[in-house]
Amino acid sequence: MADREERRFAEISRESVKFMAESSGVELGDDVAALLAEDVCYRLREAAQSSSQFMRHAKRRKLTVEDFNRALHWSNVEAVCGYGAQDALPFRSAKEGELFFIEDRDVNLVELALATNIPKGCAETMVRVNVSYLDGKGNLEPQGTVPTAVQSLSDDLLKYYQQITRAILGEDPHLMKVALLDLQSNAKIAALLPYFVYVISGVKSVSHDLEQLNRLLHMVKSLVQNPYLYLGSYVRSLVSSVMYCILEPLAASINPLNDHWTLRDYAALLLSHIFWTHGDLVSGLYHQILLSLQKVLSDPVRPLCSHYGAVVGLHALGWKAVERVLFPHLPAYWANLQAVLDDYSVSNAQVKADGHKVYGAILVAVERLLKMKALSLSQPAEGGSSGHTGSVVGAMGYRVSSPGLSPPPEPLSEAALGIASHLQAGGAGCPWEEWTPVPLPAMYCELYSFFGDSLAVRFSTGPGFGSYLPYAPSQLGEARKEAPGPASNPDTTRKMPQLTANLNISPRHDGSPRTDPAPPSLAATGPGRSLTRSSTSTSSVQRSRSCSSRSGQRPAGLSRDVFPKARFTSPQAGIPAFTFLIGGRQMGRRCQGRRPFQTTFAPTPPLPAVPPRAYAHKLPVIGRVGRPVRRWACSCYSLHLPL
Amino acid sequence: MIIIVNLGCTAAWWLARSPSSIIKGLSVWIRTNRVAGSCAVRVLFFFNLAHAHFILKMAAVQGGLVDANEEKDIKSEPANDTWANNNANDGRLPSASPGASAAAGAPEDQQTLLAVLQFLRKNKLTESVEILRREAGLPEDSLESKGADSSGAGSGGAAAAAGEDQPDVNVVLSAYSQQGDPVLYPVYYSGLKRFIETVLDCHRAELSQVFYPLFVHMYLELVYNNHESEAKAFFEKFCGDQECYYGDDLRILSSLSKREHMRGNETLLDFRTSKFVLRISRDSYQLLKRHLQERQNNQIWNIIQEHLYIDIFDGIPRSKGQIDAMSGSLAGEAKREANKAKVYYGLLKEPEIELPLDDEDEEAENEEGKPKKKKPKKDSMGSKSKKQDPNAPAQTRIPLPELKDSDKLDKIMYMKEATKKIRLGPDNLPSICFYSFLNAYQGLTAVDFTDDSSLIAGGFADSTVRVWSVTPKKLRKVKSAADLNLIDKESDDVLERIMDEKTASESKILHGHSGPVYGISFSPDRNYLLSSSEDGTIRLWSLLTFTCLVGYKGHNYPVWDTQFSPHGYYFISGGHDRVARLWATDHYQPLRMFSGHLADITCTRFHPNSNYVATGSSDRTIRLWDVLNGNCVRIFTGHKGPIHTLAFSPNGKFLASGATDGRVLLWDIGHGLMIGELKGHTDTVYSLRFSRDGEILASGSMDNTVRLWDATKAFDDLETDDFTAATGHIHLQDNSQELLLGTYMTKSTPVIHLHFTRRNLLLAAGAYNP
């Protein structure tokens, strides 16, 4: 009888009942247990019967735990909790004895939280319609072609995603190149975009690994260049990730051996690329970027590498950004930088080296600012319209670095409210609201007060610039005429950039493999000057930066050599006009002496006034310069020159 | 006191009109009101009953009085609607006590009164007991002796009456207490089996029907008398002989092996309380009777007498196919009388609506002709008159809400759309648009479209209701009261101004239920949405404010389905409590309760003329109820599984039903006959819909297909001769393949709702299951 019954239904044995009773401290006789077992079986069957109707009304084929619990609920039995998972519960048998149980694995919450595999998001419930059959005939399109935005990933896509991420983040550089190329041209990966964006947002978790950061940035570049992808609001997220690389004091930068400067340069380039190509997708993006850059720049607590990032970021965004953010901010910032550079203590060596990089970056940025400004001023002299064409030229000039893509017009008046972490809105007083353009001469004077001759040297390197200057308005003054003076000598001007460029090619070769064409630097090495004039300036930016970023001594020596002269003049000049006069005189004098100096200087470095770089490596690493800055804040225009 | 007397008279009128159903009506009334009713009302009713009996008795003696009563009471009829509902059980009443209806003599009355007294006493309504006893003139001790007698004796009217009292399980089951030798049960059964196998072929099929109910009752008797092992042996031995379509019930039965288990088992109670109906020709019946009497086989004879109702007809015995087509329900076939009542299946006359001539449409002129043009289309399937269908109910048979201006506008829109309607047919199949619910992790349980196909709503297992706009027009809420005050109420676009643009969105979520939403229905004017849920409530939502307006409580168990009347205002609901309720949106209590199904009511549908509702049930029957008086006017049997969807044809003449057995059955409402069987689906049919002209029937199923059937042909081939109509014997051709016009696969989406737009585009909906 019993075995017959067993074939029809699951049965609970009297032993089970006894065990259960014992576990709750009750002794049961055999007969009682048997009765109970039978009754339990019946109740179970009854509950299973009634649970099936909940399944039928839910229009499902699968009986769920929930159905069973509802049946229990309606027969006044407490629900069984803890089995609500949609997945099938694995039913295992223990090796010893006939014991079966549901496997209940431990869940490692930490692992779950930090897991890199992405959960398939819980998309919004929605209704989509498609014409399945037209006039009762033909299946135009198989039903179930779910729009990509809501499609849960097909297996193929998932595989693709895994392969691509593995290739990009993996070891094989060749594989990575292939993957990046595919990412750049694949037309069918729209559904994966959020996942890639998510991966890229992982920059924050790999800030210790320059290589990975680099790879992620390359991924950004590929995505941005893919013509089939509509980035939409993901631009914001991408920008935020890139900004992270530009601005954050990455964990990797603690070790001075890590070349995080290149990464920042590259990220800045990428930022401008994204901005020029996709900036129109998110309103107010330009503003937000500027705000966050400015915020970093004005925060003295941040390490110099962050400041460096802000400067190169501004530079990458174009000379207008430099004019608006960096230039007004320079006097205040200069004090801090000066303080760092003036500290010759051994413990400060590393920070000081960083300071020089910032110095170089600012120098390059303002140089182009001046050049472009002059260019924009010279244009109206020809065309009649003023600032507008200038900006166009500036944009045009910049476009060379991001070829074939038109810059989006960005309404500057728009209020910026950032969402991403790096696009935070700045303080209430946006500097550009009361910002008024500073006339070029004044600007030059002011800048000269900071940089002195090193600025002038820069100008001498731009040969094309000289040709424009004759058209410059007369009010430019003699300084302007003086400045291009040396530029009239083509030999020297040519030599200077070429020299530095040669120094700089090497990092590009040994650097991480860039799929980025990096047109500016390439164009700069070429001799085609008249066309790629502005890109030359960019290239010189890069060069000088890379120059300083190399641990070679010669570039450092150069800036060391020029720097004091500038500083010597600037404090003396109380007001810009005064500075201008003196500077002009000084510069004129210096210029005369500079040419021979320079030619002799280039092959052989000057006196090693700086402690050798080898020193620096042994020094304890200093991440932030908060203390020195504060210490020097009051004596910003110190005349105590250690020379 | 005056009121009581008056009501008493009213009740008396009702009772006089249908004396046979007094007892049943009362007991059902008691049953249905046990939950919700108050004692006071109950007592009041017993007053009336007492009156009723006197009047009835007098009426029996002097026939004239009844007429006088009737005349007097007709005026109070409207006030009496709810009482009328007590007759809702007409359909099953005779089935329960066929003998009693024949002669409602004095002893019968006496016993009924005793039963009532017993009931009152048990419920401690001592005062009522006193009054009733006094009024009925019963002696003090009569109750004790008779009561004991009635509960002890296994047979007799009193037991039957008490048996109606469903929760009184002991009384019900006590019928099984008669002892027979358990060892002999298999012998009896196999003896009968041998006999039936040896009779002539023409009788064998008919007599084989006896096997299943006999088997069940014998098994239950064994179980009840604690012969557990014998019962199991009996079951093992004979369960293989039963028809395969009883498999579900047999499984439930086999799980039951203890007397104690019988108490709580609803299926068994159903089986026990209702007589299993068999239709057998007179010849076959005589044969059986003679055999049993010859063999002195009292055990079986008793069961047949007590638990079976044999509906004997004259004529040739039915074939196996005919029997199989009609059987399968929990309680056997429907009795022929059950389907004899007249049903006004015709459509109501459409209200005359002046079409605005200043319509900018160039078709404005045509539109004058539209209503007339539309009618012939509708009548293409047979109704005779365009003016007033003789089969249509009186326009005011059921009070219907007046048309509002917006309704008239909508009607005009409907007519305009109707002119652009595609004429469908076997050569011109509809296009199908599929609405896939994506990411419905919560579990989509119900879908509904508005009639104009502008909104779609889904009910989900996570207790939410979601409404989407299918058109580009977004869903907006009405502004808050404060903002509404600022609006210029005289302006022409006031209806536009009251909407809050800020709330515009493609979809809205309605939260309120605390269990899966199993049924939803839009009101015809698109202002309301009904949802019924596992939590036992039906909620009315406003689609202007997207808030819940009313929660209708009455079903205390899951409510499986609900639907608005085609004219709005009324709605019907049905659920696990086996009672279908008719509600009006402005009443928090039901207007009618339709009870009679033996298992859950799984689906409910309104007839196009709003005068009838159809309910499908897990007991595998479909019932048609008259909204006016609550009577059950049709019982359709033939499905072999729980019925999950119903659809009326647009002309109101036919009904289609789909069940878990994957079949679609077609019914002629007027004649009360099954007229077609559409086989093809391989899984539960969850949705059925006729095209706007009734030419195509679309069915959607769990098997991920939509199938189109040629409804015109299915109905035209129908030869309803008088004999068929009279006997209810149907000859179904197996022509499913000819009628099937197309099968359309979805990718991986069960089709749970179908809808024809006003232009005859077929919309299907379901949740995508990747």
TrEMBL record, chain A:
<keyword id="KW-0805">Transcription regulation</keyword>
<keyword id="KW-0597">Phosphoprotein</keyword>
<dbReference type="GO" id="GO:0016251">
    <property type="term" value="F:RNA polymerase II general transcription initiation factor activity"/>
</dbReference>
<protein>
    <recommendedName>
        <fullName>TAF6-like RNA polymerase II p300/CBP-associated factor-associated factor 65 kDa subunit 6L</fullName>
    </recommendedName>
</protein>
<keyword id="KW-0539">Nucleus</keyword>
<dbReference type="InterPro" id="IPR016024">
    <property type="entry name" value="ARM-type_fold"/>
</dbReference>
<dbReference type="InterPro" id="IPR004823">
    <property type="entry name" value="TAF_TATA-bd_Histone-like_dom"/>
</dbReference>
<dbReference type="InterPro" id="IPR011442">
    <property type="entry name" value="TAF6_C"/>
</dbReference>
<keyword id="KW-0488">Methylation</keyword>
<dbReference type="GO" id="GO:0046695">
    <property type="term" value="C:SLIK (SAGA-like) complex"/>
</dbReference>
<dbReference type="Pfam" id="PF02969">
    <property type="entry name" value="TAF"/>
</dbReference>
<dbReference type="GO" id="GO:0003713">
    <property type="term" value="F:transcription coactivator activity"/>
</dbReference>
<feature type="region of interest" description="Disordered">
    <location>
        <begin position="503"/>
        <end position="563"/>
    </location>
</feature>
<dbReference type="GO" id="GO:0051123">
    <property type="term" value="P:RNA polymerase II preinitiation complex assembly"/>
</dbReference>
<dbReference type="GO" id="GO:0000124">
    <property type="term" value="C:SAGA complex"/>
</dbReference>
<feature type="compositionally biased region" description="Low complexity">
    <location>
        <begin position="529"/>
        <end position="551"/>
    </location>
</feature>
<keyword id="KW-0804">Transcription</keyword>
<dbReference type="GO" id="GO:0005669">
    <property type="term" value="C:transcription factor TFIID complex"/>
</dbReference>
<dbReference type="Pfam" id="PF07571">
    <property type="entry name" value="TAF6_C"/>
</dbReference>
<comment type="function">
    <text>Functions as a component of the PCAF complex. The PCAF complex is capable of efficiently acetylating histones in a nucleosomal context. The PCAF complex could be considered as the human version of the yeast SAGA complex. With TAF5L, acts as an epigenetic regulator essential for somatic reprogramming. Regulates target genes through H3K9ac deposition and MYC recruitment which trigger MYC regulatory network to orchestrate gene expression programs to control embryonic stem cell state. Functions with MYC to activate target gene expression through RNA polymerase II pause release.</text>
</comment>
<dbReference type="InterPro" id="IPR037796">
    <property type="entry name" value="TAF6"/>
</dbReference>
<comment type="similarity">
    <text>Belongs to the TAF6 family.</text>
</comment>
UniProtKB/TrEMBL annotation, chain B:
<dbReference type="GO" id="GO:0005669">
    <property type="term" value="C:transcription factor TFIID complex"/>
</dbReference>
<feature type="compositionally biased region" description="Low complexity">
    <location>
        <begin position="79"/>
        <end position="104"/>
    </location>
</feature>
<keyword id="KW-0804">Transcription</keyword>
<feature type="repeat" description="WD">
    <location>
        <begin position="552"/>
        <end position="593"/>
    </location>
</feature>
<dbReference type="GO" id="GO:0016251">
    <property type="term" value="F:RNA polymerase II general transcription initiation factor activity"/>
</dbReference>
<feature type="region of interest" description="Disordered">
    <location>
        <begin position="140"/>
        <end position="162"/>
    </location>
</feature>
<feature type="repeat" description="WD">
    <location>
        <begin position="594"/>
        <end position="635"/>
    </location>
</feature>
<dbReference type="InterPro" id="IPR037264">
    <property type="entry name" value="TFIID_NTD2_sf"/>
</dbReference>
<feature type="region of interest" description="Disordered">
    <location>
        <begin position="76"/>
        <end position="104"/>
    </location>
</feature>
<dbReference type="InterPro" id="IPR007582">
    <property type="entry name" value="TFIID_NTD2"/>
</dbReference>
<dbReference type="Pfam" id="PF04494">
    <property type="entry name" value="TFIID_NTD2"/>
</dbReference>
<dbReference type="InterPro" id="IPR015943">
    <property type="entry name" value="WD40/YVTN_repeat-like_dom_sf"/>
</dbReference>
<protein>
    <recommendedName>
        <fullName>Transcription initiation factor TFIID subunit 5</fullName>
    </recommendedName>
</protein>
<keyword id="KW-0805">Transcription regulation</keyword>
<keyword id="KW-0677">Repeat</keyword>
<dbReference type="InterPro" id="IPR020472">
    <property type="entry name" value="WD40_PAC1"/>
</dbReference>
<dbReference type="InterPro" id="IPR036322">
    <property type="entry name" value="WD40_repeat_dom_sf"/>
</dbReference>
<dbReference type="InterPro" id="IPR001680">
    <property type="entry name" value="WD40_rpt"/>
</dbReference>
<feature type="compositionally biased region" description="Low complexity">
    <location>
        <begin position="148"/>
        <end position="162"/>
    </location>
</feature>
<comment type="similarity">
    <text>Belongs to the WD repeat TAF5 family.</text>
</comment>
<dbReference type="InterPro" id="IPR006594">
    <property type="entry name" value="LisH"/>
</dbReference>
<feature type="repeat" description="WD">
    <location>
        <begin position="678"/>
        <end position="710"/>
    </location>
</feature>
